[in-house]
């Protein structure tokens, strides 16, 4: 479908090609039945040669297309050998992970800058990619727009395919899932639909918030069953959403609670150092050198969305390629003027976090902030430090000051300690998962 939709436009495709069927194929001549004279003329006059080129591409050999009109009362379903158009059936679902996976090749772990704002989500994604279907099922990633959900979930897909090239990885937006579902119902092809989605080893469902928004309970229910079938057979489900499970507009409370059962990881706005690092990496991969002060300036101006940050950078790169003379800051300011800079994230405070962690880990906040160094207090302290760094803008020095005047290397050590444990110890991952969820009020 994407191929046809791209070349013919979605409306033409929906009205004239959806109901079309291959009636006959003799050698290189394919006869396609279309629903009306109008459809036939439309396709021939407005899009000459287009069906030929699409079908040739899909079938990987040159074909000639003849269009026949099949009267509605002859019912296309009853026409002899009603093969659906191959591209309508196969392409969008991409069952064959070996050929043409729809993953964006740039969205890999290598290209993902890890920082405090995404450390936990990254660790969870990596754990899932290394052992899909094992322990963190589902992985639910949420954030505001443009902070790396799609990137991270596709990175999982890439890594799974790299480690297990024969596995079935399906990446699908919730919107496409619903559209496939609706077509499958209309075309009586639910069996095939279910076979495709329920035979995935790893399914990556993006922008789940659309699942109910577009269609309502039926597609939500279908998704729920797909979800259950896969998780019950230890297949990995990864979900991205623009809000926490608790705030999803879905009707099915069982689905909601299932979504919360695995790991819930959020991505937050990167701090200024991270934004600079992302810009540096991106400029490098574009092969454009921009002075550090320019990158710093951009990173200070655009704070809420990495996609916007990248957009601004691309615009700058384009300018530099047209006019290589050095950019002044006022010029940069003008070039990126229309990129927004607003951020409205609620921030937790250090005392709030310390108190919550102390309550949950059953120790006293005074001990956490004090000098004691027994194991019972060192670990909760390190966890609290980790969360302070992840959930607030405070620097290591600032956190150290709050935690009883510790210097920033001690704080860094605590932070790294938890980071290491996250990578190798499942209990730590769950602990941090639950604490973060609690702190965010999910
Ligand atoms: P979302 O799905 O949350 O809206 P995307 O995954 O589409 O966001 O990310 C938006 C853009 O920002 C993408 O081009 C992505 O590669 C880039 N991006 C996001 N996070 C990072 C990161 N940590 N490191 C590098 N690039 C990132
Ligand atoms: Mg996305």
What does this structure look like?
This protein is α/β, with parallel strands linked by helices. It folds into 4 domains: 2-90, GMP Synthetase, Chain A, domain 3 (2-Layer Sandwich), CATH 3.30.300.180; 119-266, 3-Layer(aba) Sandwich (Rossmann fold), CATH 3.40.50.300; 272-339, Orthogonal Bundle (Helicase, Ruva Protein, domain 3); 350-440, DnaA protein, C-terminal DNA-binding domain (Chromosomal Replication Initiator Protein Dnaa, Chain: A, Orthogonal Bundle), CATH 1.10.1750.10. The chain is 54% helix and 10% strand. The protein has a 5-stranded parallel sheet, sandwiched between helices. Strand 1 and strand 2 form a beta hairpin. The radius of gyration is 26 Å and the shape is globular. The model is unreliable at 73-101 (pLDDT under 50). The chain binds adenosine-5'-diphosphate (ADP) and magnesium ion. The site of adenosine-5'-diphosphate has 17 residues, from helix 7 and helix 15.
Looking at this protein, list some descriptive labels:
442 residues, binds magnesium ion, 54% helix, Rossmann fold, 3-stranded mixed sheet, alpha/beta, binds adenosine-5'-diphosphate, 10% strand, Helicase, Ruva Protein, domain 3, 5-stranded parallel sheet, GMP Synthetase, Chain A, domain 3
CATH homologous superfamily caption of the largest domain: P-loop containing nucleotide triphosphate hydrolases
Q: What is the CATH level 1 assignment of the largest domain?
A: Alpha Beta
How many strands in all? 8
Q: In the CATH scheme, what's the topology name of the largest domain?
A: Rossmann fold
Number of domains: 4
The quaternary organization reads as single chain
Helices, by number, come to 22
**In sequence order, what are the helices and strands, one letter per element?**
HHEEHHEHHEHEHHEHHEHEHHHHHHHHHH
Structural class: alpha/beta
Bound small molecules, by name, code or SMILES, are: adenosine-5'-diphosphate, magnesium ion
- For the termini, the CA-CA separation is 38 Å
Sketch the major β-sheet: 5 strands, parallel
Which shape, going by the Cα principal axes?
Answer: globular
Average pLDDT: 83
């Amino acid at each position: 479908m994407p191929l046809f939709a791209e070349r013919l436009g979605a409306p033409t495709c929906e009205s004239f090609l959806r109901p079309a069927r291959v009636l006959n194929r003799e050698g290189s001549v394919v006869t396609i039945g279309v629903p009306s004279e109008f459809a036939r003329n439309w396709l021939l006059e407005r899009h000459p040669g287009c069906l030929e080129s699409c079908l040739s591409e899909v079938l990987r050999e040159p074909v000639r297309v003849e269009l026949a009109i099949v009267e509605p009362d002859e019912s296309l379903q009853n026409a002899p050998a009603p093969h659906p158009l191959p591209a309508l059936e196969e392409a969008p679902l991409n069952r064959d992970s070996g050929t043409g996976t729809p993953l964006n090749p740039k969205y890999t772990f290598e290209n993902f800058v890890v920082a405090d704002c995404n450390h936990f989500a990254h660790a969870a994604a990596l754990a899932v990619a290394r052992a899909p279907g094992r322990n963190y099922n589902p992985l639910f990633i949420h954030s505001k727009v443009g902070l790396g959900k799609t990137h991270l979930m596709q990175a999982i897909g890439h890594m799974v395919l790299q480690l297990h090239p024969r596995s079935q990885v399906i990446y699908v937006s919730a919107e496409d899932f619903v559209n496939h579902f609706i077509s499958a119902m209309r075309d009586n092809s639910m069996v095939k639909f279910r076979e495709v989605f329920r035979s995935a080893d790893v399914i990556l469902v993006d922008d789940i918030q659309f699942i109910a928004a577009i269609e309502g309970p039926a597609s939500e229910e279908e998704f729920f069953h797909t979800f259950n079938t896969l998780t019950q057979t230890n297949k990995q489900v990864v979900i991205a959403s623009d809000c926490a499970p608790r705030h999803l507009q879905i009707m099915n409370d069982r689905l909601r609670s299932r979504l919360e059962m695995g790991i819930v990881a959020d991505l937050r706005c990167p701090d200024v150092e991270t934004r600079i690092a992302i810009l540096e990496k991106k400029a490098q991969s574009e092969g454009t050198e921009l002075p550090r002060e320019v990158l710093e300036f951009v990173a200070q101006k655009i704070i809420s969305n990495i996609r916007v940050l990248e957009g601004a950078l691309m615009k700058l790169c384009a300018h530099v390629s047209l006019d290589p003379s050095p950019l002044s800051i006022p010029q940069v300011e003008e070039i990126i003027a229309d990129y927004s800079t607003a951020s409205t994230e609620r921030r937790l405070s250090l005392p709030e976090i310390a108190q919550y962690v102390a309550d949950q880990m059953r120790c006293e906040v005074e001990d956490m902030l004090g000098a004691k160094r027994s194991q019972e207090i060192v670990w909760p302290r390190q966890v609290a430090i980790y969360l302070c760094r992840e959930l607030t803008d405070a620097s290591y020095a600032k956190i150290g000051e709050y935690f009883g005047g510790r210097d920033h290397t001690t704080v860094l050590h605590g932070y790294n300690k938890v980071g290491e444990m996250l990578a190798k110890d499942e209990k730590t991952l769950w602990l941090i998962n639950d604490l973060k969820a609690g702190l965010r009020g999910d």
